[in-house]
Amino acid sequence: MKENLDMLYEMASVGYFTILEENSKQESLKFKVFVCGDEDEIPHMHIWDDETDGKKIHTCVCLDKIEYFHHTGKEEILTPKQKKYLVDFLKEECKKNKRYKTNWEYALSMWNDNNTGKTQVDETSEVLDYTKLKD
């Protein structure tokens, strides 16, 4: 529990997207997208299921290339449907901060703002097509 609370203090939430699951007991699955501060040299964002705070699904994808960034406890693979919803979410208008046109721009800025001295990302880059993530 303390580990999750510590993580909450270090993360910058980009937002949420919800997927209606057809073959599930649940009607929908809500995902949180966020970046963490002072984390690693590899620019990435986290995607986790909101219901369990990432205990069921927690993975990371790079912000500068179409690759997963798996590390301990963050090794799940997104389904094709989840990848599509992630890309759609990143292309959507940013509702958290109107200075940014899209959630993608916001995510890139959050990485750069929270990881000073680490590898920075080009905030003018186009949304990566995470539907092409290799499993």
Q: Helicity range of the residues?
A: 10-25%
Q: How large, in whole angstroms, is the Cα Rg? A: 14 Å
Biggest sheet strand order reads 1-2-3-4
pLDDT < 50 stretches: 5-9
State the separation between the terminal residues, measured CA to CA: 30 Å
Describe this structure in words.
Helices cover 24% and strands 22% of the residues. The termini are far apart. It has helices spanning 2-10, 80-91, 103-114; strands at residues 11-20, 28-36, 44-49, 58-62. It has a four-stranded antiparallel beta sheet. With 135 residues, it is an alpha+beta fold. The model is unreliable at 5-9 (pLDDT under 50). It has three helices and four strands.
